[in-house]
Amino acid sequence: MNMFSTAFSALMQGFAALSWQSVVMILIGCVLLYLGTARKIEPILLIPIGFGIVLGNLPLAGLAASDQGGIINILYKSGVLTELFPCLLFIGLGAMIDFGPMLANPVVLIFGAAGQFGIFITLLLALALGFGRGQAVSIAIIGACDGPTAIYVASKFAVELLPAISIAAYSYMSLVPIIQPPIMRALTTKKERATLMPPGEKKASKTVKILFPLVAGIVTILIAPMGAPLMGMLMLGNFMRESGVVGRLVDVSQNTLTNMVTLFLGLSIGASMLGGNFLKWQTIAVFALGLLAIAFDTVAGVLLGKLMYVVSKHKINPLLGAAGTSAFPMSARVVQKEGQKANPRSFLLFHAVGANTGGQIGSVMAAAAMLAIMSKLLIK
Amino acid sequence: MKDLSFGLTMTFWGMGVTLFTLGLLILIIHLMNRLYPFKKENEDDKKE
User: By the number of CB atoms within 10 A of the CB, which of A5, A68, A193, A210 ranks highest?
Assistant: First the structure.
């Protein structure tokens, strides 16, 4: 009888060890799985994250990112904490991006700088709320609208906030079509939004397209070496794409590599979201600040767009400024849609894609500058 | 107060470096476009 009850209690260990925090987290994981599967919201990321949360919060399973020696722990330590996964994602990103529209009309690159302003406003707000410096920098970088960059910075300075930051960064990227339009409409008049711009007639030569990733990589890394892993991989991917001679590598980077890393990254981050370290007020603050960061990016971009509208004597549509974030290609599509709402003859997509790719470079530069300053401050 | 000066330093240098770098890239791209302008023949070659 004693053996019978011992065997029974051994089989019930899992249930006995289940805490309310684990149950809540498993439910959150299921919600993410529902959003990814039924609503198709960022399914490529939300499904691995959701399943990772469920697995990581099942007691005694040894599948939490913190369970030493577990398979997800190995992925987490070797891919997330070493910053390997975000860097590998940047090879794929570079292989997917066409810098052509930006190279044909380089002035739109300046929107990529304005699109990062929200990062710094959010940094000040996070500091005011009492977050530590490393945490504030990591939260602020959600404003880069760039998941891999946010993960890269957070894994350096605020590993404890990494799950919340990565979920916020990716969620808000997919919510850009909801966040940006009201701000764009509030800051511009219908006349401004209806400004017609010539469709992309100018083009960049093949030589310029090949040279750009190499030259831009060298220049930006010399200016901010701390961003080298991200910028270097981004430009490597783009150089391979534009060279036109390594189709197989480009194909692997765009598809297999990106998909595999996304799976491992999502699973590892999901399994690091444990009830005890996720269910706290800081998580809500991270989400709120992340939303503000993207809103401020849009405000700064559109305001610069209005300035350019005046300076160019009404030749530049101010909506382009909203594409300066690196939410690629969502922001560009939003600009195109809002422009056509104001003027059905308007076709802004070509220019908006240029500004959007500028935002991609701008976000890495902003992150690199922050990393450089932080590294010096930490040494001191 | 220390946090405020940290935040302002980050903002000044972070935005400054981003603006400077993107401005520099604009100049470099203009220069490259002048040195290697797009020619219609490039496209025609591709079509052939």
Answer: A193
